[in-house]
What we know:
Elements: H1 2-5, E1 10-15, E2 22-26, H2 31-42
Antiparallel strand pairs: 1-2
Protein name: DNA-binding Lrp family transcriptional regulator
GO molecular function: DNA binding
Domain Transcription regulator AsnC/Lrp ligand binding: 4-54
Amino acid sequence: MQLFQQMPEVLEADRVTGEDCFIVRCAIAQPGDLERVVDALAAHGGVTTSLVLSSPVRKAVTVPL
Length: 65
């Protein structure tokens, strides 16, 4: 979506199934930055936010050639 491309805070956007349409991973420095991102997205539909507290498991995926 072009809106995500225009937002410097957006690192990744995944289209998903279920109640939500997208999962958008952002880098936010201050609460006001999050508010600005949420407001921009809310202009296009409902927004639910969650904050990542930690990422205890991160694995790189390798695909055999």
